[in-house]
Amino acid sequence: LLFLCVCTSELERKLRANDREYNFSFQYATNAIKTNKYNFFTFLPLNLFEQFQRIANAYFLFLLVLQVIPQISSLSWFTTVVPLVLVLTVTAAKDATDDISKHQLSNLFPVIRLRSEKWMDVQVGDIIKLENNQFVTADLLLLSSSEPLNLVYIETAELDGETNLKVRQALPVTGDLGEDIEKLADFNGEVRCEPPNNRLDRFTGTLTFAGQKYPLDNEKILLRGCTLRNTDWCFGLVLFGGPETKLMQNCGKSTFKRTSIDRLMNILVLCIFGFLAFMCTILAIGNLFWEVNEGSQFTVFLPRQNDNKAAFSAFLTFWSYVIILNTVVPISLYVSVEIIRLGNSFYIDWDRKMYYGRKDTPAEARTTTLNEELGQIKYIFSDKTGTLTQNIMVFNKCSINGKTYGDVYDYTGQRLEVTEVKRVDFSFNRLADPRFMFHDHALVEAVKLENPEVHAFFRLLALCHTVMAEEKREGEIYYQAQSPDEGALVTAARNFGFVFRSRTPDSVSIVEMGQQCSYELLAILDFNNVRKRMSVIVRSPEGKLSLYCKGADTIIYERLDQSCSKLMEVTTEHLNEFAGDGLRTLALAYKDLDEEYFNQWKQRHHEVSTALDGREEKLDELYEEIEKDLLLLGATAIEDKLQDGVPQTIEQLSKADIKIWVLTGDKQETAENIGYSCNLLREEMNEVFTVSGNSPEDVKEELRSEKVLKNTFLPQQNKSSLNHFLSDLVNGEYGLVINGHSLAYALEHSLEQEFLKTACMCKAVICCRVTPLQKAQVVELVKKYKKAVTLAIGDGANDVSMIKAAHIGVGISGQEGMQAVLSSDYSFAQFRFLQRLLLVHGRWSYLRMCKFLRYFFYKNFTFTFVHFWYAFFCGFSAQLGLEMSYWTAVNTFFVLGSLGMYFAVTFTMYSNGMFLMVPPAFPFIGTAQNSLSQPNVWLTILLTSILCVLPVVTYRFLFIQLCPTINEKVQVRQAKATPPPPPRRTRIRRTSSRRSGYAFSHAQGYGDLVTSGRFLRRPAVSRSSGFTNIGRTTTGFSPMGRSAGYSPTGRPQNTKAPDVEVTSLQMYRTFRDPAL
């Protein structure tokens, strides 16, 4: 169970060791976390709610409701229930499987807390014990460990992706607790620290114990997600648990990345809904007219009630056709698309041409939803170090006191290739690294001659770092460095006689030209992306206080003493030469400190270190105060070679009209040289512009003065439509180089559009001296205004923000850990594999998806139009034109069969390398409009349906008018005939009023008249001719009717009718019986 009752207004955290009652009063979160979305009771409602947020699923649920209404539906309800339930079940099963695995891994790891417990049972203020190779349970304050000086070694690969071991050290006052259970149980230290946050590299707090305050920083904290290495055991105090740990604070929701195909499908589905409503409206109107004009003539065939209304019938017909024409809405579209994407991801994973055998690293598609977007890339944002280069640093050259070392010259002054020169022999140093290579013998001779500047240079390299040394055997030293640069510099110092041997929290031990020396470590002014430098303050064995500093040349030059001006000029020339060779450079400086001044500074440093408010800012001010008036020693140049195939890859991507921007933290000269080396910048370019202004006005002027803008017409429009007139078409090819401080001004709101216009007109852009935040800002700027698909590729933790900001992130599994890979969508080991990922898999995936969608929509529209046209021949009565069971079987068989056959053929044809990459032969950008959105696709569907139905339509509407059928002739004749007069009502006698023949003999009759024959007369022609009414029920003709001249009472009536009636009666009887 996850408790989220943490006070939202928490400004600082207070806790007391081994006092759960005190800590519980603050209602801190427990160590239980919830990475799963569902539980047993919420799975069904939550999952269904999520699934019905898809328009297609919600539509078919609405369709099911309509089908249970008998007045509307002509289909059985199971025709909709079966596919809907199938889709929902498959999706729910996938979600349940993923969630169950997360739930099982969330809180079930055991942790030793003097007794075996689960992670979820740990609470803030508990003291727990960890053993070697165990995951750190929560964010802990390290109390003690099994290692000397209370050191612990941790691996943070799961936290920041870096695979090298890091060291943490406990306070001496808590280190004395050791593993004494009684002392640990009696420990009642009180901690005040920062509230929960997501800053992995910072921590501020104080520990109050035995009346004393001790500062706490990140070097004394073990974060959840780390792994304990090379340490038997350690004890820690829980500071943050569960969702409040820094690991979980960094697990915010990642931006959901959607492809252009997804957006296009959503638009198409909405359009299909509108088209469905349009078709149903047309058919409902047709039903209305048919009922009004023709419906009454078909009552014999289609009986209807007299009170039926045409409008109500049309209303019901509309909803009936919504059900019948539902096949036009693709309910299985999303599931089918995901299956195809999964297959495309397997193709990427199985591609042997993207497998790096040296490190046994295959390509990996870490997401299955972006494959087809790879074929739509317009902009690539790439890191340099470790991405374009190998990130294997080698000490190549250096400049010491105005003299360069590293190049070898012959007697004529010509520089020789290193392959022509014998390697330097380091046999004089038994601790040298045998893998280190250097070819300039002059530097070794200067070391042997004890040149003071050279010795100070390498002494700085041996002392100013945070490298950890591990010596398993005598003389076999292995360095664990946070960056390859530091490892290369310490290794160089080691080979030239200044060997870093070991360190403690208070000292650094080195071997200087064979002599063991121990320097007291007084302070470390650590490196960060803002400072761009690192310093250490040490006391030599002779008692001399010194500050050693190394960092970016521009940063160091700002803090040098004025006496170094001449040396600065010479060293600057050397730095430019190094950068021209594509080398990474650092400047080195030092200063001697006064003992009294340092003691005052140290006291203020301790006070600031124990402050909770503004600690970082106050520390930076103290660092600035002491890091000034430095004396320049020289500069280093480290080689970082290009990876194999980088120039060819960039050339091919450029031919595909993909623009590549390099965002690097290196200096401008180094970045430019790498740009030329990898064919990003070429001598054939018209011009390469450089922006290096130191103010917003200067940057704006430089951007506007570029020659490329003078020959480009840009119509003025409003700001919201900037993306409509950002033209990439210019006369010629141009490049742009901009440094970090100028980029900071260019990214301001007032200049970002000017910068983007200039950059987008260039074939290549290089941004140097940039921070991780600036990398992400550049990507976001292009996404905001260009509306183009972007890709970011990098290998280090400083590239994570850029990778997450881009539409597609690619991680290089290189030397800087796995953080970039863990944050990426695709990963592989070499930059050259990007060519195959985009130009082969991206194109194939997009074309496969487009072909599938075109076939899918064609199939749905073709089947639906059959019912639409059939409505014109069934009186718009919402009848089915096909047997649904037959169509379902055919649809399922051919859809699945065609997909299986297509993938089988595709795998056979393409996986063996038969496809040759020829970028100019096919377009990459804008294929969405050319493949799926082009009008001829929908025109083909429409024309095919019309051509199939046109013969029948022509026959029915034209030939029927010329040759009507017999039934139609009869119907027309009956419609034109004069209707007969309504029949008169026949008088019906009651049975009791009838009399027998015997009753008439009781009254005087007309016997004498009959015998005399006087009653005979000519019959009336109007009554007797033709006997047209014989057999019809008419008044006065039935033999069962009343007798002539008599009323029901037997009284004579005073009329002339009796003679006619008697005559007619006799003639009727004569006709019926000739004998009469």
Automatic annotation (TrEMBL):
- Family matches, as CDD domains: P-type_ATPase_APLT_Dnf-like (cd02073)
Organism in which the protein naturally occurs: Labrus bergylta
Q: Which residues form the P-type ATPase N-terminal domain?
A: 16-81
State if Flavoprotein is listed as a keyword: no
Give the compositionally biased regions (Polar residues). 1027-1037
Family assignment?
Belongs to the cation transport ATPase (P-type) (TC 3.A.3) family. Type IV subfamily.
Q: Which InterPro entries match?
A: ATPase_P-typ_cyto_dom_N, ATPase_P-typ_P_site, ATPase_P-typ_TM_dom_sf, ATPase_P-typ_transduc_dom_A_sf, HAD-like_sf, HAD_sf, P-type_ATPase_IV, P-type_ATPase_N
Q: Enumerate composition-biased segments (Basic residues).
A: 984-993
Q: What is its EC number?
A: 7.6.2.1
Locate the residues binding Mg(2+). Answer: 383, 385, 795, 799
Ranges annotated as spanning the membrane: 267-290, 310-335, 856-878, 884-907, 938-959
Record-given protein name: Phospholipid-transporting ATPase
Q: Does the keyword Transmembrane apply?
A: yes
Q: Which GO terms label this protein's molecular function in UniProt?
A: ATP binding; ATP hydrolysis activity; magnesium ion binding; phosphatidylcholine flippase activity
Note the superkingdom of the native organism. Answer: Eukaryota
UniProt keyword terms in alphabetical order:
ATP-binding, Lipid transport, Magnesium, Membrane, Metal-binding, Nucleotide-binding, Translocase, Transmembrane, Transmembrane helix, Transport
Q: Catalytic residues per the record? A: 383
P-type ATPase C-terminal domain location: 821-879
Grouped into one coarse class, the protein's main location is membrane
Q: How does it sit in the membrane?
A: Multi-pass membrane protein
Name one cellular component (GO) term. plasma membrane
Chain intervals for the UniProt region annotation (Disordered): 973-994, 1027-1059
> PROSITE patterns recorded for this chain?
ATPASE_E1_E2
Cofactor(s) recorded in Swiss-Prot or TrEMBL? Mg(2+)
